[in-house]
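Appendix B: complex inputs.
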Amino acid sequence: MRAPVFAHLHVHSYFSFLDGSAPPEKLVKKAADLEMPAIALTDHFNVSGAVRFFRSAKEAGIKPILGAEVVLEGGYHLTLLATGPRGYANLCRLLTRAHISSPRGNPRCSWAGLEEHAEGLLALSGCRRGEIPSLILQRKYAEAREAALRYKALWGSSFYLELQDTLLPGNRALNRCLLELGENLKIPVVATNNVHYVCRKDFPTHDVLTCVRLGIKLEDVHPERPLNDENYLKPPETMAHLFTFCPQALHNTIRIAEICQPALDERQNFSPRFPLPPGQSADAFLRELVYRGARERYGCITPEVEERLEKELNVISRLGFADYFLITWDIVNYARSKGIRCAGRGSAGASAVAYCLGLTEVDPISRQLVFERFMSLERAEKPDIDIDFDSRYRDVVAGYVYRKYGEDHVAAVATYVTYRARSAVRDLGKVFGYPEEEIDSLAKSMPYIPADEILPALDRFPELRRGPWKGERYRRLLEFCGLIAGFPRHLGTHLGGLVVTGPPVVEISPLQVAAKEIKICQFDRNDIEELGLVKLDLLSLKALSLLEEAVRDISRMKPGFRYEKIPLDDPDTYRLLNRAQTVGVFQLESPAQRALQSRLKAENMEDVVASLALIRPGPIKGNMVEPFITRRRGLEPVSYLHPSLKPILEKTYGVVLFQEQVIAIASEIAGFTPGEADRLRKLMTHARSLKEMKEIGEEFVRRAVSRGIDEKTARDIFSCLEGYASYGFCEAHAAAFATTAYWTAYLSAHYPAYFFAALLNCQPMGYYSPATLANEARTRGIRFLPVDVNTSTDRFTVEKARAIRIPLSRVKGIRQNTVARILKARQEGPFSSLRDFYVRTQTERDTLENLILCGAFDTLHPNRKALLAWVPEVISQSCLQPSLELGPPAGIKDFTAAEKCLLEYEILGMSADTHFMYFFRDRLIKEGYLTAGQAKEMPDGSRVKVAGLPVRPHRPPTRSGKTVVFFSLEDETGMIDVTVFEDVYDKYGHFLFGPEAGPLTVTGIIQHRGEGTALISRKLGPVLLK
Amino acid sequence: MVQAQQVLWRKKGKILQFKCRGQWHTVREALDRWKDVGEWWDGEAPKLFVRLLTDSGVWELYRDLTDGRWFFYRRYD
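Resulting structure:
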């Protein structure tokens, strides 16, 4: 084996965000292939690639060196490498300081910061934009020497002059000067290549991304654009050839690689500690709380309960997660003490400990939920307890976590915002200089697919077949989109994740400021997990806000009303579910759920729990929905592939519905331990290739056969699991959400006006737009009252029991402080005219006009157009002659009713009086179109024509793999659900998706199933708006 | 662009002499070299530029890296 001669120490991955085009794994693999002993990762001001970099280096057997390239206050670059954990901690602190103390997106390191955090770091003088090279290039030799002495004074022998030969003008002279400076000042030199991509052929991608970063087109000249393609991961031989003039610079890379030790210590425990009462251990305190909670939950502790709790406590203690449970318990306690509604969700519902601590509301013992779905010794992973909070107060709870554990120990989890089809088209389209409107149209037509699936999608999706992008002119753009698929573009904020650490978090990850001034770490949830950090998922759930809002208003009318007291067997609620009137009901409102409800005929909470799990890709693709419904309704006998499946599948009528059942089947049939069975479930979930799935299947069958199950039965059982496992729901989660779903259904059944008002106040949430929700409410007999400057407030309010007043805050463009000003002015008496309103509120002209156009002054001046014409005079005269009372000009004909409706849609996103389609009704009747309401009354098999607005067209995965589109067609009478099969979609899909989508005519066949109706489309077309 | 008709290389990639507009020029020192990929998106070939000190002044030549041909770029008097 030849001796290693070189290691790359200045390397950017695609985590340099638009200034690098290689995943860390590819860089490591290439370095390993080139037999380098080590490689460094030095992204711009971040370490987001660190976890993947370390993992892949470990796999490849080469040493990972972690560092970063920073920019100093004078704009000079500097390369820093961590020589070990101490250096890494200092690097994180230094990067944090730079991010936090500089304007967002433009971090700068101060010299004082460098001085404070230099320990354990090794510094290289940087690329041509480094201080010393830059001064030399400007021929400021004396200043360059002074700077070099300053760096040497700070870092001593840990400072190196960086030599690069990337074939740029002046390189030779620059390197000669650096070499001379090094010799004179006794500063060692080191060769680097400022790597930004793996191979030379990756250069165009890097250049295109650079253009995105700089906001320029390909043909634009910019000093930061690379001149050539020399910044690739050059082989040692190439580097040796380039540096024949200074072999020492090559040898020093190896010397540095030997000095640097891995910066992330895998054995280090980052877990936070819960502040315990004196003399208590975390395990003992947890046990005390759990048994206290168990006595409250169960009354008396039976041997069954005790056995379960002991088993769970033992696993928690052995894995060292007692503090994690205590911290979560403390947070939930805080929320409850402040009256903030919260509920645990997810697999934590399978834990009796979580139930007894009050973290979840699901009793896993009575539901027979396997604890191993949540935690197991075999898996030994950190448990994930997700808690939903009323979305209005989630940040209050997060604030408590920061206060309790210290700002230095808490940060929000990041997300890597990566390129998908739409974002890639938008960013690269600009760089390639395509017309903005064409790019906009293409991006809007683009389904939610990865960026490397665009080219095949052009044939697959009918809405993409039209337009210029199928031609050669677009080919190059779309190919480049494919090349950047999955590349991280920037860091975002995870919706609910907070990382809480024992040591200061700023020594584990640099922090930076994201939108809304939130401090985020630089790792996403997967990396956090891999690092062994504790992550708390404090999620915002608007359904909880909706419940709180509605109950607050209802209890004003009906004191003492509390939703905890809502009976879970209310006939009116189940009637509402059976009629599929579930628009707005949490988790049960999609067209597929509504169709299910009308056929399932739910009678109890178990049916609701099953509903949540049934409409999931797993059961749908596994063809489990039909058997479940027919068996549940007694139309088909319940059968089992093997008698031992009966106790597992009895509650779901022989159908595999929950992830817990997969675990139980693997244990019962193939003899897996519960932990092994859950691992199998996870493997099946993540198996992405047929080969992987086949291997898992063979293992299952082998073990089942060894337990006496015949091979065919074992294979049949596995094929059931296989169809299901990839997208199944866990029962604990379904059960946790089912109660919230039921409560919202109850409110919708008994207090529809309050329910819809609260629902509209919590927007955006759920499946439908405010316009659709308002239309649905209207079909339930609720009136909407227009915005009124003298009556509307800042929220939807119920008036006269069955009417909802649209708030001022719905008006497009209105500011919060304008609404506050109007409400304050109104306290002194109602407004008497537009002029009076303006004089007292000084509302901005745009908002004033919008208020007029949506009818907010109708009760004062019924002619909106005349009022609009009066605005300039009102504004000018009110300043000059405040006491002069004038009126709107006479003789102006007002808008038509249809125009008013359209304006309301535009300004409020909804109309108070009616639906947009109402204004076409006369013509549509003449042309033979039925309303949605009429169509639903037609006999099964009737051929009908309906026109309306398409609502939420979507293409869920199907068992056959064929495309089926579902959407609702909405008009003034309500909605009818439409199904579009592949042949029809293929011809008319462009009317549903993309820029041509709009009001639609559907010709098709009526199909009744249960109390539900679907329109099976034969033809789609646009409604001509003449 | 005027094509440099002939460029003589020594073993280690150093240019000894080149012939341009019918005249041979002897290189006393290679002052610099750099690479420019140009407008790659338009199919422009990458070029290697050299700045050479000769008896007749400082010359810049470039080599088309796709076909290896040399061209005269500019001359400093």
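Residues 731-750 of chain A form the longest helix (20 residues).
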